[in-house]
Amino acid sequence: MHFVGVPLATLLQIGALAGSVVVVFYILKLRRRPVAVPFEKLWERILRDKEATSLFSQLKRFLSLLLQLALLALLLLALGDPRPAANILEGRNIIVLVDASASMKATDVAPSRIEAAKDEVKRMVRGLSGSDRMLIAQMDAAVTPLSTMTSEIPDLEAAVASIKATDASADFARGLRFGADTLRGLSSPEIIVVSDGALGPAVDAAGPVELGDVRISYLPIGSRATNVAITGFSVRRYPLDKSRYEVMLEVTNTNDEPVDVELSLFGDGQLTDLSQIRLGPKERLPRFYPNLSGASKTLEAKIAYANGSRDDLPADDHAFALLPERRRSRVQVVTSGNMFLEAALLLDEYLEVTTIDPSRYPAKGNFDVTIFDGVTPNVAAGSGSLLYLNPSGENVPFEVGKPVEDTDPNYRLGFDELDEKHPILRYTVLSDVNIGRARPLKGEKEDKVIGKSYKGPILIAGTRAGVKFVALGFDVRESDFPLRISWPLFLLNTINEFVEEDVQYISSFRTGAVWQIPASSAAETATLELPDGTKRSVPVKDGRAIFLGQQAGFYKLSMGQDETTTFAANLVDPAESVIKPATELVVGGRAAGPVGEFKVGVRREIWIYLLAAVLLVTAIEWLTFHRRVTV
């Protein structure tokens, strides 16, 4: 027998001291106070009867002493926590990885898979032997230990109660590596995976996970696999009509049978489109919605069975997106006068244009875009992105060649080569533009040549010190470019490329990833409000708030009272929407075994029974005292 609580030597010292005190109290004679009585002869007879039973009284007091000493001994033994040597050597060290991915929100088992998993883990906790130790960890996009390695039942049950399923996939390899590292050097190591089995292979960037001598066990959760899902959702505004937008989404049928579904689109909470489609077995169907209107900020998509029934995973039936903000862009035009330029900028109501003479540059305030028309002054702070029209001189971030004119009868001066996929050429036709005179432009290696004549590049784009620029190597008034519809399109596309996130804009983040959310570079921390209403403080680094997001819905990032950013997040993971439970889990070519050796109510901790004995002896002492057996 070993004492794993208070050492035996300490128990003996405490017992000797406490036992001496108890014995001393019982040895002390009982002091009686004198009382005057009216007739002495009557009391002499009573005292003679008392002397006859004095031996029995002493025996009763000795029995009371023994009971008190027994109580003391039981309490001391409970403090020592005695355990058989075999129990100490055979104790297991167990890591329980509870899958908290989105598929565990499935409702094929009541009330959900995650709640069923928690019930199973609670049974294991209550069936731990006194020598076993366990650690509970939640496994989703990260691995979160919810307890220490302990045998304390209340601590483990509290850890199980705190488990909550997320809207992300589980990083199985990370969970196994966490378990293997935690169990390294411990006796009888075991990892128990409680999951529906939709975990994927146990492989990460470091390669396959090797568990060595760690035992791996698997407790499967789930029964059915009926599900349809939204597995893709994005939105963008049209660059020339920001009141209209287009939506791209993808729906998936994970079933083996065809299904009829209803697909609903909501703009700012109002229904804007409702369609019914048929999905074949295992079909992934993309859907494109062009030329939509009716929403200014938020979009939501919902999918449901056409017959009104519900699938087993509601988490992927709903997707969210945020439309780019329709804000006014401040444009500074530095020109001596250009009617074609000024007229084209009037076509977009979301442009706030300030036109100044070159001698008055820069204008007051900060601008998103500055257009230099035939001038190249030193760029002032607050000018934003730069559009050069017919640049010349040395104050440009590229080389400007000598003028070339359209005098060769065999070759027309114009755009001979075009990068028609570039965003600033969207919806334009420049191949037949005639140019009277131009200046070839030569940028750096990283710059992009968008348009090229037989004399060299005449339309380039690039970035200098984080500032975007586009340069057009001729005066539009010396061409027929302004007489074409492509001229205002070119201008508005260029401004849109500068100020809108049309190419890089993310209408929604993907759950389970580390997000880098645009934030004020002056702030060090920001407050993030999650879809469930909870708030978190997140760090800000280099103008980006860093956060591992695992909930789908709309978020709000606050950097101050007047500076807030709203964004959306979605699951959109086809693999996570396949919720068919796996009956077998294989790690490194080794199949996980069944979970066993947990019997509810069986504990080998002797101190529990010693405390029960203390209660029993106390009850006996109370009963014998009131029955006047020990007094």
Would you write up a description of this structure?
- It holds the Pfam family VWA_2.
- Keywords: Membrane, Transmembrane, Transmembrane helix.
- The protein is α+β, with helices and mostly antiparallel strands and 631 residues long.
- It contains 11 helices and 37 strands.
- The strands form 10 sheets. The protein has an 8-stranded mixed sheet with strand order 18-17-19-20-28-27-26-23, covered by helices on one side.
- A hairpin with a 5-residue loop joins β34 and β35.
- It is elongated, with a radius of gyration of 40 Å.
Number of strands: 37
Counting helices, strands and paired strands, the structural category is alpha+beta
Terminus-to-terminus distance: 37 Å
- Mean pLDDT rating: 86
The largest sheet, given as strand count, sense and whether it forms a barrel, is: 8 strands, mixed
Number of contiguous helices:
11
- Note the beta-strand portion: 25-35%
What ranges have pLDDT less than 50 throughout 5 or more consecutive residues?
52-56
Please give the order of strands in the largest beta sheet.
18-17-19-20-28-27-26-23
Organism: Polyangium sorediatum
Keywords: Membrane, Transmembrane, Transmembrane helix
Protein name: VWA domain-containing protein
Structural features:
631 residues, alpha+beta, 8-stranded mixed beta sheet, 7-stranded mixed beta sheet, 11 helices, elongated
In short:
The chain crosses the membrane at residues 6-28, 62-80, 606-625. By secondary structure, the protein is an alpha+beta fold.
